[in-house]
């Protein structure tokens, strides 16, 4: 099933989720880069992150940690993945000696046009198109 808002679907989803998050007591840390998982007794208790604005290192402690790091699409030679999809989250999990599970479910677009750097959209297939 496809969700589309003209050519601004991602923008629309981002603003909808952000608007909903304002209903709760959320803190935002913009321009931070997660370096490693904070491990204690074999359990993840947060992340260690670099502030990209001033180069300081921070510890973010948490009861639960969700990694949403964008996958590893840039590890492929021909890809339409964002430039930030470099596998850093997968690497953090490996360094912490934890399991990376279900890696086959990381989004990958098999309809990229080699050399052109463009993509036959998911909407094309979602609307019943055959390739």
What does it look like?
It comes from Cuerna arida. One of its GO terms (biological process) is mitochondrial electron transport, succinate to ubiquinone. It holds the Pfam family FAD_binding_2. Helices cover 20% and strands 21% of the residues. It has 131 residues and is an alpha+beta fold. It has a single domain (29-126), classed as FAD/NAD(P)-binding domain (3-Layer(bba) Sandwich). The strands form 2 sheets. It has a 3-stranded antiparallel beta sheet with strand order 1-2-3, covered by helices on one side. The longest helix is centred in the N-terminal third of the chain and has 13 residues, at 9-21. The model has no long low-confidence stretch (mean pLDDT 87).
The fraction of residues assigned to DSSP E strands is: 15-25%
Based on secondary structure, the structural category is alpha+beta
Count of individual domains:
1
Distance between the termini: 17 Å
Named at the architecture level, the CATH assignment is 3-Layer(bba) Sandwich
Fraction of helical residues: 10-25%
Keywords: Flavoprotein, Oxidoreductase
GO cellular component, one term: mitochondrion
Protein name: FAD-dependent oxidoreductase 2 FAD-binding domain-containing protein
GO biological process, one term: mitochondrial electron transport, succinate to ubiquinone
């Amino acid at each position: 099933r496809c969700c589309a808002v003209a050519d601004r679907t991602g923008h629309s989803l981002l603003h909808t989720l952000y608007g909903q998050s304002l209903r709760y007591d959320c803190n935002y840390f913009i321009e931070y880069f997660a370096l490693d998982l904070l491990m204690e007794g074999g359990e993840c208790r947060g992340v260690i992150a670099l502030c990209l604005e001033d180069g300081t290192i921070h510890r973010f402690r948490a009861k639960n940690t969700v990694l949403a790091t964008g996958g590893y699409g840039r590890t492929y030679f021909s890809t339409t993945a964002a430039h930030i999809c470099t596998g850093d989250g997968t690497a953090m999990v490996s360094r912490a000696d934890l399991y990376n599970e279900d890696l086959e479910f990381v989004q990958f677009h098999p309809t990229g046009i080699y050399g052109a750097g463009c993509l036959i959209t998911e909407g094309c297939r979602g609307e019943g198109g055959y390739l």
